Amino acid sequence: MNSPLTLEKRISTSAAASLVVPAVSVLLALATGAVFLWLAGHNPVQAYTAMFKGGFGSLYGLSETVVKAIPLMICALGISLAFRMQLWNIGAEGQLYMGAFGATWVALTFPDAPAVALLPAMFIMGVLCGGIWGILPAIPRAYLGVNEIITTLMLNYVAVLWVDYLVYGPWKDPNGFNFPLTAQFSPNATLPAFGDTRIHAGLLFAAAIAVLIHYGIKRTRWGYEIRVIGVSQSAARYAGMNIPKNIMLVMLLSGAVCGLAGMAEVSGLTGRLQHGFSPGYGYTAIIIAWLAKLHPLSIIIVSILFGGLQAGGFSLQSSGVPAAMVSMLQGAILFFVLGGEILTRYRIVFNNKTKKMGGKGTWKQA
User: Fold this and answer.
1) Is 0.90 surpassed by the pTM of this model?
2) Are 152 and 89 within 8 A, CB to CB?
């Protein structure tokens, strides 16, 4: 049976639509959140005002927004690299956890090492562990065609539970009052911070990665291959590009960048590995990457906005609104952004059924 409407791929997308549609998507998500707040008996205006003030209304709020944005920036930059090649790396959360695990192992094994040796070693181990966790699902994807969405998602649970095993078991701090966390890192294992704020050098990592990705994608032969493979694997194969090799390399780098986010989080902020140190940064990064259209500079900006949501969510609790409202808003934003992405790439064609002689129907574009 023919459908009364179909989706027709647009030949090109206007620059105005690329800017307006994401903005409208966010507004619709906020409007949806306002409806739920109202149904729950809360004043949406007051709730959103408290959230905005908590994230952007003071110097402290702004600093906390940036602190929350740092792991979001790094993870979103990492997965954007895979997304450009149509590789759906949903495993940023697990890669972040494994990066934190690798960095923590170095910090706990060599507590008396000088900072000039300890921090680079933590950097390398964080990147290495995240990269290994990224390449594991790339192998079956490259050579067997196994869906990487499923494998990367499942590996998230493995990584999180592995870290939980460590902080509840062999790495548990005997002086930690039975809390699931490791011993405090030595000062030499801590990233430097800016002034009296909690903003740490992980921000510089994010800025450097954004520049490298932008340059690599736009100015190098390898970046050109990634873009071609992302558009059409058939054309890339015809041109002689090594698709399995690029799948492995891109997933390795994507996981390595996300692993760096874990290293920066435990070394720059918590100063130890602990249960639940990430409130879902790897999943939120997926929303950020799509909302930013995979552009590195846009990812930095959107991450700050989402960092404000995270920081402002704690202010909501003082007004009686559950902080889980932030997670609901993030989900709503993802829903509307994906819907807007469809409307950006496709247009809706309505069909009118008209009858001809003989009783046969034809379909015409409205």
Assistant:
1) no
2) yes
